[in-house]
Every structure is written in structure tokens, then in C-alpha cells.
Amino acid sequence: MATNPKLPDYPDIPPRKPADDHTKVRMIRQSKFPWSVVAIIIGAALIIAVIGFFPKGPRKVTAPSGAQIPPQPTASQVEFTGVQIEPSTVGDAVTLNAILHNAGDTAITGVEVGAQFLGANGQPVGTTMGKVQAVYGGTSSEDLTQAPIKPNDSRPVRISFDHTPKGWNHQMPALTVTTVTATTP
Fold first, then answer.
1. Does the first or last residue of the chain, that is N or C, have fewer Cβ atoms within 10 Å of its Cβ?
2. CATH says 77-182 is which class?
């Protein structure tokens, strides 16, 4: 068996470097300015600015110990006088005309009245709710929110009930003031 000690020639192969040949390592120039410290300071300043601009939550406020509660409207400040029944020509509706006197310390802006209707034997046959409205010129009415009744003032009012119970004896119903709204002085 014969061997050829000559290796084949490969074109353009760079020669190997000897083991003791050390190439030069380039050193990267480093700046003497502390950029990392500046970046940390800028980041902290941005975080503080963002926290400063966020809206704060509601603060807990304690009420003063000697706080005065303003007077609240009650049914006792509403007084009806001269109540008259005005029957409707159509259906089972009925209207009551009266004079409302404000006996309280606040201006009344709304009154709701419950009417208990009685039957022929004097027993209750039903209850209906009605809203009080101010009367102008005898024919037109306006909501009390538009025309409040001032303290110690009187005004003609109208209370309308859209439906009366069957069996009503057509006598004056028993009126009960259920709701009063008023402005604070």
C-alpha cells in the first residue's frame, strides 16, 4: 500500500498563526463622565414629577363638633284652609281648591297630599296621592318649584286627583300631608 505524503493544495486558505502570536486587543475608550449616575437622578426626578401630578384621593373631613342642622320641612308647616271640591266633568277625577299657608321657616317648593276617600257607610274605600300646585288667575296652575311659598305667606293652590275610588260618597276626603320639600333659609 502506498501513501502519498503530499497533501492536496487548497487555494486561498490563509496560513495558520503560530501559537505564540498574540494580536493586539483594542481598548474601548471610556468616558470619565458618570452617565449612569445622571440617568438614575433623571429617572428619580421623573417618578417624583409623575406622582406629584396624579390627583389626590379625597381627604377625610371631620364635621365640626357643634354643627347646626338646618331646619327641615315638616308637614306641620303646611296649613290648608278654605278647601272646596271641584268635581271633574269627565271621568273619576276630582280637584280640591284651597289656600295653603306656610307656617314654617323655609320656603315650600313642593307638597304631596294623600286623600282618604270614604264610602256611603263612612268606611274608607281608597286612598289616592295628589300633588299641590300654585294657582294663578283662577285657571292656570304652576308647580311649587317654580313658585315657592315663602315663610308666613299664603297662596291659592290646587290639588288634583286623577282617579277616585269607586263607591266614594262625594264628600270632602280626609287629607294627610305626606311629603314637603323646601329650601333652606
1. N
2. mainly beta
